[in-house]
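Hey all, sorry for the wall of text incoming. These are the two entities for the joint prediction.
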Amino acid sequence: GEDVEQSLFLSVREGDSSVINCTYTDSSSTYLYWYKQEPGAGLQLLTYIFSNMDMKQDQRLTVLLNKKDKHLSLRIADTQTGDSAIYFCAESIGGSYIPTFGRGTSLIVHP
Amino acid sequence: IAGITQAPTSQILAAGRRMTLRCTQDMRHNAMYWYRQDLGLGLRLIHYSNTAGTTGKGEVPDGYSVSRANTDDFPLTLASAVPSQTSVYFCASSDSASGPTDTQYFGPGTRLTVL
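and here's what came out:
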């Protein structure tokens, strides 16, 4: 099965919160990442979390990690149209920091 | 400072032809990577290089080769292109592959169509 799984689409209204979910299979994951890809562009690292952390907050972004359930989420508060993009969950394992990516979740923000 | 550049932006190629995708970074990063992005499959690592003179295979290396003669350049070659290699190709670089804060910086991508 997939190492990193995400739902493919999420649609939210402008101003609402968005929650993008991800599950991973390898319990030895060391770091988990969220990347953003805007249309026609490459990926940009948004944030990452070490596997011994439960939560990380950075301005409008909140990352929650449930290590028991191998579940990672990205919450975007006050979602704006500029947040419309594809969001990739990724993990790296052990001594390698080369991330393995999920398929990406397309976030659509509508007025 | 350009960061990381890729050429060409897009290319249509006949099956069986040889093609080299170029990637150059001016950040003096040690590590460089090639990914392909396919609809519904996310990004898959083709090859990587931790430092000039070394390369390694990723998840989907077959049909591709790379070289790393210097720090700045990391070309990806398709020796004999096949239609299944139709994809968007992203080059990335990072200061090293030894820590999570060694952020990967991505190029703008090359859209390749093999007919």
